[in-house]
Design brief:
CATH class of one domain: Alpha Beta
CATH architecture of one domain: 3-Layer(aba) Sandwich
Largest sheet: 6 strands, mixed
Low-confidence stretches: 1-45, 93-128, 353-361, 364-371
Radius of gyration: 20 Å
CATH topology of one domain: Rossmann fold
Number of helices: 7
Strand order of the largest sheet: 11-10-9-12-13-14
Distance between the termini: 24 Å
Order of helices and strands: EEEEEEEHEEHEEHHEHEHEHEEEEE
CATH superfamily of one domain: von Willebrand factor, type A domain
Length: about 375
């Protein structure tokens, strides 16, 4: 089942890999195609909805040790049954054999000498029918090589290379760069040397088409299951894209792709881009960082690595729902003792009609998409 998406930018109308390729969500199991091969047709079955969820306390510390029964998920207020459940690799590394957290920084603040198990007191008992597992993430790095990046080019390469080397061994990483066009320097791989070589091979370009390039990267991530994220390293405003950030954000939401953005410019120096970055990252369950120097850039990448390692990955098969447009997702924690924690994840996706998307059609003008209701 494929997807059709269209985009709308104020007075202009654009067709995007689908204003939300209702790839909404990929079928369980292996995809029937490779998203990064070109030319390619993108066909996605809308069977399984995937959520990447961060749970933190009031101080921003990650909360681990939760179980499927601790999460209550609804779609358009319709209760959903969890099918698959994964803990982040960092949470597993920090826990003992019975998943009791050992790192005080990540233990719920109510009691840093005990684990943060389920609200019912169960430590290993899953929801009936839910598959519990642990796996790495699929991470796409999107590096700005436009003329905006020229002065800090080498420092940016160093920060990205350090980030790549620091990632969990189970994670796969792809490295893309962009100026006016997108370059796929390294496809998804566990080979850190290949990715770093791709980083070091980049050269400065011309104008910056961030949102066009981000759209194509989301499309590559769309068919992947489990935790998947795009880490954008930007040094200036987009001055060459034909698609608006709102449509890219909604597409990322609908494919379950988290977007993190590291900007080398302070928010007050470019308020328009800063607002777009904040909105896009928030809507997809990610974060935006405004790092004015090399040290803060490295801190931002460290924060992203920590976040990816502490995400819960939950998926479900949607219950019957007559709504064929935007579907609102709500995720809450069960039990009164868990209400003090904060949840960060995407808040919905758009269900679209079947269609076939080709790379050539991504940036072609098309019919207007109805607004979210």
């Amino acid at each position: 089942m494929g997807v059709h998406i269209a985009m709308n930018k104020g007075h202009k109308t654009f067709a995007v890999i689908g204003k939300c390729i209702s790839v909404l969500l990929l079928i369980a199991g292996e995809p029937s195609f490779v998203a990064q091969d070109e030319p390619t047709h993108l066909r996605v079955n809308v069977d399984l909805v995937q959520l990447s969820i961060a749970v933190t306390d009031r101080k921003g510390n990650y909360v681990g040790g939760l179980r499927p029964e601790d999460f209550v998920i609804t779609e358009d207020k319709i209760p959903q049954k969890i099918a698959n459940f994964e803990e982040g690799s960092e949470m597993v590394r920090e826990s003992g054999p019975d998943h009791k957290l050992q790192s005080p920084a990540h233990v719920p603040e109510a009691d840093q000498t005990k684990a943060a198990p389920s609200s019912t007191g169960a430590k290993t008992s899953p929801v009936s029918g839910a598959n519990i597992s642990v796996s790495g993430a699929n991470i796409f790095i999107l590096f700005d090589t436009s003329n905006y990046m020229y002065r800090g080019f080498v420092y940016a390469q160093d920060a990205i290379s350090d980030f790549v080397r620091s990632m969990d061994d189970a994670s796969r990483i792809a490295f893309y760069s962009y100026s006016r066009d997108l370059s796929r320097a390294a496809q998804l791989t566990e080979d850190r040397f290949r990715v770093v070589s791709g980083v070091r091979s980049t050269v400065a370009g011309d104008d910056a088409a961030l949102y066009n390039s981000l759209l194509l990267t989301v499309k590559d991530a769309a068919p992947l299951t489990g935790r998947k994220a795009i880490v954008v390293f930007s040094n200036g405003p987009d001055n060459a894209s034909s698609v608006p950030p709102e449509d890219v954000a909604e597409l990322a939401q609908s494919t379950g792709t988290i977007v993190y953005i590291v900007s080398t410019r302070l928010a007050q120096d470019d308020p328009v881009s800063a607002a777009s970055f904040e909105r896009m990252s928030k809507e997809t369950g990610g974060k935006a960082y405004f790092a004015g120097n090399w040290s803060k850039e490295k801190q931002a990448f460290t924060s992203i690595r920590e976040d990816l390692g502490h995400l819960y990955s939950i998926s479900y098969y949607p219950q019957p729902n007559p709504n064929r447009g935007w579907r609102t997702i709500s995720v809450k924690l069960a039990g009164t003792n868990l209400q003090k924690y904060h949840i960060r994840t995407r808040d919905g996706y758009r269900l679209m009609q079947q269609a076939t998307i080709t790379n050539e059609s991504l940036l072609t003008p098309g019919p207007e998409l109805a607004p979210r209701k």
